[in-house]
Design brief:
The structure holds three protein chains of three kinds.
Chain A: H1 7-23, H2 28-34, H3 39-46, H4 66-79, H5 81-91, H6 93-101, H7 104-115, E1 121-124, E2 140-144, E3 147-158, E4 165-171, E5 181-187, E6 193-198, E7 209-220, H8 232-268, E8 270-271, E9 274-275, H9 280-308, H10 314-338, H11 350-357, H12 367-379
Parallel strand pairs in A: 1-4
Antiparallel strand pairs in A: 2-3, 3-7, 4-5, 6-7, 8-9
Chain B: E1 2-8, E2 10-11, E3 14-15, H1 17-29, E4 35-42, H2 47-54, E5 59-63, H3 73-87, E6 91-95, H4 98-110, E7 115-119, E8 121-123, E9 130-135, E10 140-146, E11 151-155, E12 171-175, E13 186-192, E14 206-210, H5 220-230, E15 233-236, H6 238-242, E16 263-267, H7 273-279, E17 284-289, E18 302-305, H8 308-324
Parallel strand pairs in B: 1-4, 1-6, 4-5, 5-12, 6-11, 7-11, 14-15, 14-16, 16-17, 17-18
Antiparallel strand pairs in B: 2-3, 8-9, 9-10
Helix pairs in contact in B: 3-4, 5-8
Chain C: E1 2-7, E2 9-11, E3 17-19, E4 26-28, E5 32-34, H1 36-52, E6 55-62, H2 67-76, E7 80-85, H3 87-90, H4 94-106, E8 112-116, H5 127-135, E9 139-149, E10 152-159, E11 162-168, E12 172-176, H6 188-196, E13 201-202, E14 221-227, E15 236-237, H7 242-256
Parallel strand pairs in C: 1-6, 1-8, 6-7, 7-13, 8-12, 9-12
Antiparallel strand pairs in C: 2-5, 3-4, 9-10, 10-11
Helix pairs in contact in C: 2-6, 4-5
Classes of the chains: A alpha+beta, B alpha/beta, C alpha/beta.
Chain lengths: 382, 325, 260
């Protein structure tokens, strides 16, 4: 067994940590307060080339393995979750199906610019009445000659209102349930495709999240992102574990940011004549937080390693997502206790981490769904 | 007797304070008769500076080569190392000033010996002598010992106390080091004196900060006057910035600037954690507050419980008096 | 212009530094960074190369771990790197560090040597000047501006606020100060190159030195023990009428603390 990052991965971690410290951390508070897409930071950061992280070098990517990618997700989320969500969307979900199934024409138009940050992408799964329950997707795709006609409304779409490139989940036949699902490419400017309501969120502010409306949107045949019709669920399975472990990595990013705030406060705040880090109850919090964060990272990086080695990882990815999320929720909570009433003041960061962490409960699957799924996998269909 | 050379530096018409501090300290540790101390000056030496130096040392050696009229690390190092070698000096000491730290390492190489830079304390009479110097920005100090001779040191200003000037003047000797111009490969084109612009808070050695206790924006002139008297940068608390008495750039604290000066004077500041997190690494903290229970006193070396409207002007006055005196 | 940049890997400025038992060693949190001032040196080297051509080579003396600092230099844009691997010398005094590095430099072709003005761990600020002396080269310290044009090299040196404008003959050593430039953030293409690059390693024996020279017998100076900084004592109230307390405060700050 070998639990160490390779020298290359360690170096990558160092570089991305420094880059995030320098470019993202100083902007995090402003991004949260303004709750506007940070265009300037987007331009500065995407110029560095990280959006091509997962894709082959031949097309301008970095060909990073899943372990290296998790290192990146963790660090960028540590900087600013609001910003990280937009960045990660372009790296993973927003471009994967375009990369996997798009024609060269489509890639030139959508993927390569997205890898440089020139186009903003999104993935449209969720609807008002369907999230984890994908089979309930009501957005439809109907074939009309050489075109597909998309109708429906998507909700909770990360980058939605700004998206140039959308990968849209739609059913060709609602009676088939999950077996009728497919992914379609819809580009900005296509008639009938328009943003709707923009959501005012508790956390992850800065990422613009909202509704996308598809009203008789006509797209060419080649915009079906899949080798075969009605295999959307199988294609989704290709990145599902990676998405879940990515969410877990983001959880560790948020947890680390909060933990660092807690550490600084424990070392400086004096109560009863001593810095509070001298009190056992505060020390115990750090012991617990550090232990659970270490455990989360072991789950995250071993699941990522399994994905890399193409070993079964469905259960491990779900475990990592759930455990890291619960750890993060605990850490952000403990840090607000360490900070006392100051954690309640919007001028300090702990409240931001506390709010941001809540998204983890929904992104990548609710824990109710995940636990049910894991239990079913473990027990069998009974 | 072991010969000790103290490199003395001239600024304007007089010697630098650190040079005098070192001469005084050297005179103190030489009292046991084990050491003989010489001051060494290279280049420009105004009469006033010479006279002042002679009241602090028994012997002043002055290198007058025209090639050494302007500072160059190569020239100064050769002159000082050459003189140290010639007289068999056991110790060469300079202030840890810009120039001292710049050329003393070269002296060490020329004399094939080590150097301790930015020394803040010394046990001159220990056998062997030991020197204390900061590392990690002062988070840790190292006690250093030499295994070669001579001992080369640069000493941080204000590390040793000034002593009294002597009535009888020392001996003054002019020398040349025989530096040929082709050994110096740098040429000073011009010197721009330091502008009077104050240093940014994050880099300031001296800070005077004010809080809500000042009661109004215009009262910050009391802070500014005290800061002016010692060449300090003005800082402020968040509440003062929120009240628009001072600009955002002046704010010290968690959402403002983190500062770490040698001296932080805080007046009318209660010590909210926000502010404390931005200044608690200051070396010496003097707090002035009417409330004896103000939290800032927990983070202060010195406290004055009193009315800042009286204390601040009195401090400014006292500083001016000392300057003139 | 062929430029050598001498860099040092140091503990991260935020790393916890604690004194070990009996003051004999330091326990330092294992978080590392390129010395801040060395980043300015790297950036300046890259700028000179961009303006005048040539190549930039980063060199460090350190443990195997220090290769990370060299990779960072490559990621920023340095063409080559070299590690002189020796923990003894790396932990030694300024003289020995300068000796090793100057021996390494003797084997190199260069016009310019750039270094940070001091390393933020040992805080000595000695090595670049010593290297210059070992090699018989001029140096300009604490540089905040460096202009190379028409065969002339002019550096601005910031000594305690005053600025000296100095013309210097190359080859020469320069020590970089904050304000010289704004170090670039590496692009992913640089990061990838840095991850793959094979960085040659040298031993002190390759430079004609022996390991015992860095040992207790060979060093010119050594650290006997580490001491903690003075802890801030409990507040000392200065009593008396405002005018008296003010005068006393000024006296203490001037004569006792000697901070003004």
């Amino acid at each position: 067994m070998d639990f160490a990052f390779t020298e290359e991965q360690q170096f990558f971690k160092k570089i991305i940590t420094d880059t995030v410290d320098r470019m993202v951390v100083p902007k995090a508070r402003e991004i949260d307060e303004k709750d506007e897409f940070p265009w300037e930071l987007w331009k500065e950061f995407t110029r560095l080339g990280y959006l091509g992280l997962r894709y082959p070098e031949e097309i301008g990517g970095m060909n990073a393995d899943p372990v290296t990618a998790m290192i990146f997700y963790e660090q960028i989320a540590r900087g600013s979750v609001g910003f990280a969500q937009s960045v990660i969307m372009n790296i993973l979900m927003g471009t994967y199906f375009v990369y996997r199934f798009g024609s060269e024409e489509i890639k030139k138009r959508c993927l390569y610019p997205a890898m440089k940050g020139e186009k903003i992408t999104t993935m449209c799964f969720t609807e008002d009445q369907s999230g984890s329950d994908l089979a309930a997707t009501r957005t439809t795709a109907v074939k009309d000659g050489s075109e597909w006609i998309i109708n429906g409304t998507k909700m909770w779409i990360t980058n939605g209102p700004h998206a140039d490139v959308a990968t849209v989940l739609a059913t060709t036949d609602p009676s088939l349930g999950a077996r009728g699902l497919n992914f379609f490419l819809v580009e900005k400017g296509t008639p009938g495709f328009s943003p709707g309501q923009v959501l005012d969120k508790l956390g992850c502010r800065g990422t613009v999240t909202g509704e996308l409306v598809f009203d008789n949107v006509r797209i060419p045949e080649e915009n079906l992102l899949g080798a075969e019709l009605n295999k959307g669920v199988d294609y989704l399975a290709e990145i599902l574990d990676e998405v879940r472990v990515m969410t877990a990595a983001m959880a560790m990013g948020i947890a680390q940011a909060a933990y660092d705030e807690g550490l600084e406060y424990a070392r400086k705040r004096i109560a009863f004549g001593k810095t509070i880090g001298n009190y056992q109850l505060i020390r115990a919090k750090f012991a617990d937080m550090a232990t659970e964060m270490e455990a989360s990272r072991l789950l995250i990086y071993s699941a990522a390693w399994k994905i890399k080695e193409k070993l079964p990882s469905r259960l491990e990815a779900a475990m990592a997502k759930m455990f890291a999320t619960e750890t993060c929720l605990k850490v952000v909570d403990e840090v607000t206790r360490i900070w006392g009433a100051n954690a309640f003041a919007n001028e300090y960061n702990p409240q931001r981490h506390f709010r941001d962490a809540r998204f983890l409960l929904y992104g990548g699957g609710t824990h109710e769904i995940l636990k049910d799924f894991m239990g079913r996998m473990l027990i069998g269909k009974a | 007797m072991d010969k000790v050379l103290v490199f003395v530096e001239i600024k304007g018409d007089g010697p630098r304070k650190v040079s005098l501090e070192l001469l005084c300290e050297a005179a103190r540790f030489a009292q046991n008769g084990r050491f003989s101390v010489e001051a060494v000056c290279i280049g420009r030496l105004p009469d006033a500076a010479r006279d002042k130096l002679l009241s602090y040392t028994e012997k002043l050696v002055h290198f007058t080569d025209p090639e050494l009229a302007v500072y160059s690390p190569e020239g100064y190092a050769r002159a000082l190392a050459g003189y140290a070698r010639e007289g068999g000096a056991k110790m060469v000491i300079a202030g840890a000033t810009g120039i001292g730290r710049d050329f003393l390492p070269r002296v060490a190489v020329l004399l094939e010996t080590g150097i301790a830079s930015d020394v803040t304390g010394a046990n001159w009479l220990n056998e062997p002598m030991t020197f204390v110097r900061p590392m990690f920005g002062g988070k840790v100090f190292a006690e250093v010992v030499f295994s070669t001779s001579p001992v080369i040191l640069t000493v941080r200003p204000n590390s040793f106390a000034m002593g009294e000037a002597q009535e009888k003047g020392g001996e003054y000797i002019e020398k040349t080091a025989g530096i040929s111009p082709d050994t110096i490969h740098t040429k000073v084109v011009r010197v721009e004196e330091a502008s009077r612009d104050t240093v940014d808070l994050t880099e300031a050695d001296l800070i005077v900060a004010g809080g809500r206790g000042l009661k109004a924006a215009e009262n910050f002139n009391l802070i500014e006057e005290l800061a002016g008297a010692i060449g300090a940068t003005v800082g402020a608390t968040r509440s003062v910035v929120d009240a628009k008495w001072r600009e955002q750039a002046d704010q010290i604290g968690k959402s403002g600037k983190t500062v770490s000066p040698k001296l932080y004077i805080g007046a009318g500041i209660s010590g909210a954690i926000h502010h404390i997190m931005g200044m608690d690494t200051s070396k010496v903290v003097l707090a002035i507050n009417r409330d004896p229970n103000a939290i800032i006193f927990n983070y202060a070396n010195y406290g004055i419980v009193g009315d800042l409207f009286e204390v601040l002007p009195a401090m400014t006055q006292e500083l001016k008096k000392r300057k003139e005196g | 212009m062929d430029i050598l940049v001498l860099i040092k890997q140091v503990p991260d400025p935020e790393a916890l530094v604690e004194i070990g038992s009996e003051g004999k060693d330091l326990n330092i949190e294992p978080k590392f960074a390129i010395n801040l001032f060395d980043e300015y040196a790297i950036e300046e080297a890259l700028k000179i190369r961009e303006a005048h051509g040539g190549k930039v080579k980063a060199i460090t003396l350190g443990s195997a771990k220090a290769i990370e600092a060299l990779r960072t230099a490559i990621a920023m844009g340095a063409d080559e790197a070299m590690l002189i691997e020796d923990e003894g010398f790396a932990a030694g005094d300024g003289y020995n560090t300068a000796l090793v590095l100057s021996r390494a430099l003797e084997k190199e072709m260069f016009d310019i040597v750039l270094c940070g003005r001091q390393a933020i761990d040992a805080d000595r600020g000695e090595v670049p000047q010593m290297i210059a002396q070992f090699l018989g080269l001029p140096h300009v310290g604490v540089v905040v501006k460096l202009d190379i044009a028409d065969g002339k090299t002019v550096a601005e040196s910031a000594f305690e606020g005053a600025k000296e404008v100095i013309e210097v003959a190359l080859p020469a050593v320069f020590t970089a100060q904050k304000g010289l430039n704004e170090p670039r953030v590496p692009l992913i293409t640089g990061v990838m190159k840095a991850m793959k690059v094979q960085i040659p390693k040298l031993t002190v024996e390759d430079l004609g030195l022996t390991r015992d020279m860095a040992g207790p017998g060979g060093s010119k100076t050594k650290i006997l023990q580490y001491l903690p900084p003075k802890k801030r004592p409990a507040v000392q109230f200065i009593e008396g009428e405002p005018a008296h307390a003010a005068a006393e405060a000024v006296r203490i700050l001037t004569e006792v603390e000697r901070v003004i």
